[in-house]
Each structure stands twice: as structure tokens, then as C-alpha cells.
Amino acid sequence: MSVGVCAAALAAALTAPAEAAPAGAAPAPTTGKQTPHWQLKDSGTDVRFRGLAAVSRRAAWVAGSKGTVLRTTDGGAHWRNVSPPGAAELEFRDIEAFDARRAVVLAIGEGEASRVLRTDDGGATWTESFRNTDAKAFYDCLTFFDRRHGLAMGDPVDGTFRILSTSDGGRSWKMLPGAGMPAAQDGEASFAAGGQCLVTSGPRDAWLATGGGAHARVLHSADRGQTWTAADTPIPAGDPARGVFALAFRDRTHGIAVGGDYRADQASPRAAAVSGDAGRTWTTAAQAPPAYRSGVTWLPHTGSAALAVGPTGTDLTTDGGRTWKTVDTGSYDTVDCTPDRGCWASGEKGRVARLE
Length: 356
Prior knowledge:
Blueprint: H1 3-15, E1 38-41, E2 51-54, E3 60-63, E4 69-72, E5 80-81, E6 91-97, E7 103-110, E8 115-119, E9 127-131, E10 138-144, E11 150-157, E12 160-166, E13 174-175, E14 198-201, E15 205-209, E16 217-221, E17 229-232, E18 242-249, E19 255-261, E20 272-275, E21 283-284, E22 295-298, E23 306-310, E24 313-317, E25 325-328, E26 334-337, E27 343-346, E28 352-355
Antiparallel strand pairs: 1-28, 2-3, 3-4, 4-5, 6-7, 7-8, 7-10, 8-9, 10-11, 11-12, 12-13, 14-15, 15-16, 16-17, 18-19, 19-20, 20-21, 22-23, 23-24, 24-25, 26-27, 27-28
């Protein structure tokens, strides 16, 4: 499948009407349509944005280094700096937004550097709702099932991954018992690379991506993080720089995993895998992305199209993740799409883009 065919499929997916036209209505004109492409939006900063929460085509949040959080409500034409006061030393790696005013952001790092903050007024004020006090713990990602229930995860401590749970939209958190978590492999951890090492689909299912151990694994919970099962993936591991970096599930059954080796001088064969059974088994993509990828998202209103991004480009699949073709060579760390076909990407040097 050529890049041109991929682009055409992407165009069809994003320009298809959300609803059928009324009987007898004239067909919509097609003159002037352009192939969808990333259009950079001036963020006004050069920090790296590994955290991204797309709300709609007009609204999005990004979070990154130097404690930076930006928000747009006009499609990226203007960005408001809504960074929490006194957060300049924090490293934000994940942000989840419920709408244009309410969001929860995760800072990573050892000990007290790992924190969670929430805003209810578009970032005008922030409230810290969790601060890690265990020197051995390091939190990586957070996710939500709905506006109230969510999880945050940290690397293994004493042999098991740490899971926090919230039932009030991230205003408070509690540690879940470790008894339902499979033992971690030696050297196993998750990657705080693009806010997609912990994801959900539906009201109860969550998946956690790992690397660094002998096998790159995906852990699945069907009960909001109380118990987990682990499955090996074919994505290479066995090194602290290799593994599954990002996950996306379009429903509780169909998932995509992407990753590889994040070192620029190392090849990343078999950098993508797919699952059709809720993550119990994974199959290598027949034609994987050509390099390490740290973000992935399903395109809205399609059953088989998805985008994966990384420092060397963006890849498109139109067959559920079995084959991928590069459609852009710009550097991005993460990607997210909304039901109104608002697809956003963000990454190094203040890069933020929307699919146009």
C-alpha cells in the first residue's frame, strides 16, 4: 500500500460525514478538499510536550517539561500558559482532560517529584491531590474510565507495579492492594514517554504497558485495577530502553501496542503489535513502523484506522494495525483524537500540531 493510498484512506476516514444525509439531499461538494496533514501551531515555547489531552477540534491541553501546561480553545491559534504556580521544577508527562476547563496532570520522578494536580477552572488555579512520599516509587501515567473513576500507575516497588485509584475525578487517590498484581520481571518498568503507558476502554477495562524486562508485556485489568493478568508481546525488550511505550484500545477487545528502542542509534524492528482478544495475546504487525514510536491513537469513526507517532515520523494503519506506512516525518511524542475528528500531536521544542 503506497503512502498516497494511505493518505487517501486517512482523508476518507476524516472527511466522511458523521451521519447519513437525509433522503433526497444533494451530495456535499468535494471540490477543494486537501489531503489531511499535520499543521504546526505556535505554542510560544520550546519545552517538550509529552502530555497531551485532546478535547475537541478547538480545545486541547499539553503538558511538559519545566512544569509547563498550555491550553487552547480556538484550535491552536492561541495558547494560554496555565502552568501551576511553583511547578517549574516538575516534569509533566501525562494530562487527562474532561473538557476545556477540567483536567488532571501528572508529574513524574523519584519520591516527591511524582505528583498529581487538578484544575476546575481552565488552569487558573490548581490543587495538588497526590504527592508520592515513597523514595522508591516513580509514577509514569494516569488514565480515566469516566469523569469520576481513574487510575495512576508507578514502576514496581518490592516486585509489583504501584496502582492508585480515584473515584472523585482525581481530587483524591488511594493505593490499591498489590495482591492482584502479577510479579514484575527483573528490570521491568513503564515508560513515561507520551502518557499512553496506561489506558482504558469502557467503564472497567485498563491496560498497562511495560518494557525493560526479558519480555515486553501488557497487563490487563477488567475490574478497574483491582486484579491484573499479564501477557507477553512480540515487541523486543531485554534492555532498559526497549519495550511497549504506548497502547490504544478502540473497544475492550481490539488494541494496538507500539514501542521499540528509544535510542536514536538503535533499530526498532517489530515496533508494533495488535490484539483482538482484550490483550490476552499479541501478534507482530506484518509491516511495522520503521522506527521507535511513543504514541498511538485510533482515528474516530473508523474500525481500522490509527496513527502512531515518534521522533522520526507519523505512521498510518488502515487495517487495524497489521500494516503501517509513514505519512509524515516530523517529530512528535504523543497523539490523541476526539469524536469530532480533532486529532492533535505534540512533542519536542514546543511542537504542537492539529490534523488539518
